[in-house]
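Hello everyone,

My group is preparing for a crystallization screen and wants a predicted model to guide construct design. The compound we'll soak is flavin-adenine dinucleotide. Before spending weeks at the bench, it would help to have a computed complex in hand. I've included the protein sequence and the ligand's SMILES below. Output in structure-token form would be ideal because that's what our pipeline reads.
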Amino acid sequence: MKSSIVIVGAGAAGLMAALELSDHYDITVLEMHDQPGGRIRTVDKKYFPQPVEDGAEFVHGELPVTLELLHKAGINYTAVEGAFYRVIDGHWTQEEEMIEGWDELLSRMKSADAGMTLSQFLDKYYSEEKYHSFRKEVIRYANGFDLADENLASARALYDEWKNEQETNFRVNGGYGRLISYMEQQCREKGCRFMYQQTASRVEWTEGRVDVFTNENKVFTAQKILITQPVAVLGNPASKAFIHFDPEPVEYLAAAQDIGMGSVIKVQLSFSPAFWEADRPDTGFIISDEAIPTWWTQRPDEAAMLTGWLGGPPAAKWMNADTGSIVDMGIQSLSAIFNTDEKMIRSLLLGSHVCTWESAYTYPTPQSPTASALLRTPLKHTIYFCGEALYEGKSPGTVEAALVSGRQMAAIIRSNKQ
Ligand SMILES: Cc1cc2nc3c(=O)[nH]c(=O)nc-3n(C[C@H](O)[C@H](O)[C@H](O)COP(=O)(O)OP(=O)(O)OC[C@H]3O[C@@H](n4cnc5c(N)ncnc54)[C@H](O)[C@@H]3O)c2cc1C
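Reply:
Good plan to model first. Here are the tokens for the complex, ready for your pipeline.
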């Protein structure tokens, strides 16, 4: 008879682990929502010309595991196109360097002490008045793209991410959700059971046995458990998805709190027609100094859609705001960026869709390497953790990181098979 394992979470990491373990284990996947995907959620929205991505949208480069799965699934993907603009005080520039002085910044960050935060690094090298706006731009970039809190994020680890960021990005045709559907289907064909709307809330365990209790009054018993929930949930008893362990792995839960996770607001607006096409037809990405600073089009697709992105500590302040205020903030930002009348933009708006994510993805802190190494260490061959934050590589926080982490932990579990 096969050994049994409960996997908590049907996101990219949980599905990948389930796929890789299904030949050796009897697998039950518990998922609190009514569908798989976690932070990958492709949805159809009225007034939008194509499915929209609530969460992950891009494949950041030629990432081997993501592309391998897309090829197996027969799903095509398209390189993102369009010019990258910076718009500061209404002034548009398209530059080779993202920020003037960027290359010098990177060469300094490369040799920063491992324990230094981004704020400490900027204080050390860029404290003079002449660097005032440069500092603001660097922080805006760290907030926006890495969701990083400059006072907590590691400068050295951000360097590792930023040095690779010039690669081509891709979009999955029809949305990332297609990849999730493919993986779930493959898991089912291999005999995995999926239990949706089951929130694991308590795990009683001893070596070689777990009893997993759900909020919906079910109990699942297995020899092992693999937990894939975001680290911000794992370490936070106030979260509705928090799991109480008996006995409690105190050091593991504390380690989860040492890894940074940032917030995001993603606002998607659909127009008719695309008002920016007349003056700025080649627009791909915009980074600006407006309240919602980052925007992108769907290029090369000509869909009349703009996606706005507010990340990091500035987004955290808006987590409880109503969607109307966020859409208003988006339209005001676009009005300033394109120097176009707000009323005119509003009159062309067909639909809006706002997603707020309190814990969207991981950014590295000086404590992250030690914390994630501990969380990757199996607990008495019985409790295992994986997910994007625990990826043993340079860029956590991505779908690729989640997939690789799921695969890596499946290999560890198989090698410990009892
Ligand atoms: C707005 C946004 C944009 C992003 N953009 C990109 C991008 O462009 N490119 C990219 O590569 N990555 C992007 N990411 C990051 C990427 O989505 C994640 O890194 C990845 O999907 C994480 O996968 P995971 O399996 O580790 O975690 P998750 O997807 O969070 O999966 C964990 C699962 O566990 C479930 N769960 C949690 N607790 C419990 C419980 N107690 N009981 C049962 N189930 C539970 C959750 O519901 C969830 O389904 C983005 C993320 C967000 C939020």
